[in-house]
From TrEMBL:
This is Acyltransferase. It comes from Cyanoderma ruficeps. One of its GO terms (biological process) is triglyceride biosynthetic process. PANTHER family: 2-ACYLGLYCEROL O-ACYLTRANSFERASE 2 (PTHR12317:SF74), DIACYLGLYCEROL O-ACYLTRANSFERASE (PTHR12317). One of its GO terms (cellular component) is endoplasmic reticulum membrane.
């Protein structure tokens, strides 16, 4: 006998979608601090052995993040991510096939405030990554700081996140069997300070490390642009040269992370809060740019590939912008 469940009502679906986004916001704004506090606090309770055993495991497992991490497919396929996908909604679009015998380096743009599109598309299966790109295993780079936090490191590794350092990137790109995709949010934390609705400014003009990495491994470069990524939050005005921008840069130099003062809507009201607006995001993955392998590329060779990448990214943006209500007179600005 087949049991059929009644579909959820629309109001309940919307509440679940909002709750899924709220837990994701919390996971990156508060979970790390809670994990640290729990780890330390447990040492002063009768459950001290939990922290002691984890500390021993942490030491043994310390190299795991830089060796490709440890993904947990049950968590990548969790229903929570599908509710989060439908909240915005978020979609993933491919424009070319990716050969599973090759490794690829994807440049993701823009960062946005919290990189929602990058996380959902590459760290979960909510948008159907494995269906769109069969035989390809995605990895997304994240600040190394987060992998030094007990318990939290295991949570972020479960989705395929790895530290943003050369050792971790090289481990993925040099796998001879192929079938690996390394996504780098090239603009990084600094670009988040310019993430606001209608902005198409990318911190990319002098960022060439990812290009050099691709040349050293002979890995094709793939541009990806996430339309709507910057539309999720408003941000307190922080023009270059302002006191707020100077403080944000100073804190970034100290902590390694940027602190954009963002706001959008609340859970139960729509006037103010930290929950992002319900605005669609579509991440468009471009076609691979062939790269000739060279262990020690010259500056000129890096510049040539970098310029080709900028051109391909601009073409991708111009070709698809009309579909996502981007004004005709809007173009990418590289700084």
């Amino acid at each position: 006998m087949k049991v059929e469940f009644a579909p959820l009502s629309v109001p309940l679906q919307r509440r679940l979608q909002t709750a899924s986004v709220a837990q994701w916001i919390f996971s990156f704004l508060g979970l790390a601090q809670c994990c640290t506090a729990a780890f330390i606090t447990l040492f002063f309770t009768r459950f001290w052995l939990v922290s002691a055993l984890y500390a021993a495991w942490w030491f043994i497992d310390r190299e795991k993040p830089s060796k490709g991490g440890r993904r947990i497919h049950v968590l990548r396929n969790c229903i929570v991510w599908r509710y989060m996908r439908d909240y915005f909604p978020i979609t993933l679009m491919k424009t070319a096939e990716l050969d599973p015998r090759q490794n690829y380096l994807v440049g993701f743009h823009p960062h946005g405030v919290l990189a929602a599109g990058a996380f959902l598309n590459f760290c979960t299966e909510a948008s159907g990554f494995s269906t769109l790109f069969p035989g390809i295993t995605p990895h997304l780079m994240m600040l190394s700081l987060w992998f030094r936090i007990p318990f939290f490191r295991d949570y972020v590794m479960s989705g395929g996140l790895i530290p943003s350092d050369k050792e971790s990137a090289s481990h993925v790109l040099r796998k001879p069997e192929g079938g690996n995709l390394l996504a780098i949010i090239v603009g990084g934390a600094q670009e988040a300070l310019d993430a606001r609705p209608g902005s198409f400014t990318l911190l990319l003009k002098n960022r060439k490390g990812f290009v050099r990495l691709a040349i050293q491994h002979g890995t094709p470069l793939v541009p990806a642009f996430s339309f709507g990524e910057n539309d999720l939050f408003d941000q307190v005005k922080n023009p270059k040269g302002s006191w707020l921008r100077r403080i944000q840069h100073w804190l970034q130099q100290i902590m390694g992370i940027s602190l954009p003062l963002f706001h959008a809507r609340g859970i139960f009201q729509y006037s103010f809060g930290l929950i992002p607006y319900r605005r669609p995001i579509c991440t468009v993955v471009g076609k691979p740019i062939p790269v000739q392998k060279k262990h020690r590329p010259s500056e000129e060779e890096v510049d040539q590939v970098h310029q080709k990448y900028l051109n391909e990214l601009s073409k991708l943006f111009e070709k698809h912008k009309a579909k996502y209500n981007v004004p005709e007179d809007s173009h990418l600005e590289f700084i």
